[in-house]
Fold this sequence. Notes:
By secondary structure, the chain is an all-alpha fold. The chain is 77% helix and 1% strand.
Amino acid sequence: MKTNIGLYLALLFGVFSLSTSAIFVRLANAPSAIIAFFRLFFASLILLPFLLSSKQNKRQLLTLSKKQWALGILSGLLLSAHYVMWFESLRHTSVASSTVIVTLQPLFSIAIGYIFLKERFHKLAIGGCLIAIMGCFMIGWGDFQISSQALFGDLLALLAAGVISIYFFIGQAMRKELSAVPYSIISYLSSSLFLGCYALIEGNSFIGYPQAAWMAFGGLALISTVFGQFIFNWLLKWIPATMISMSILGETIGTCILAYFILNEAISFQQGMGITTILLGLVLFFISPQIHKDR
Length: 295
């Protein structure tokens, strides 16, 4: 049985690690589908020794039911669809619009949990969620665009938020019977396969990138994925998908801070106010009474 403080520290570490994603993507300077492909493919290779060295993990993988295989591959499809729709949205709308709309993910998670899992949230938690999302909008408001093309991009970003919410709920269901390593490898490998096919359709090359790009791919795989997203997969056994989704709003804060120190990007007064608002919302959400389920 894990202690709450230990789980929340792991969650904080995962959010900070995930915050490096945008930095590594900027440094990679490669096609989006290629970045996502190598991110998940290399993450699978990093986790592979932990699968092969554990009898429990190997036994679980060899005894998976058809339903578990189907759910694992479906989670990979959803993860790749999330990336494809999000990346495609960036072609039609501003980075700020797309990124901020993707942060609406907790609203999808709350709705899914309420409808299908009978999860009930305290008013303080819902208020904290809305306040944190408002903070994300404050950070990106100045770069929003209004046009029919931008509207299409915003819609794709919204769909990407919904898809990644479903991904976490599938992970929550699978983690009840499956360890984090075999589940993550199935999800990441199948997702990289789908992304590889998409990259081929787009006509992207898998070779010929400079050393800096390969180092960024490795950073995305190790820090952003294994130390970030994989931590979330591991925590899904003890922390509801809704709380995981909510915590990811903290990625916006981490990215702003890292961009300040690594990319020399200044933090404006408006961004500072947005960061403060997000922190307030997250504090209210996590100090509220725990989620309960209707009988």
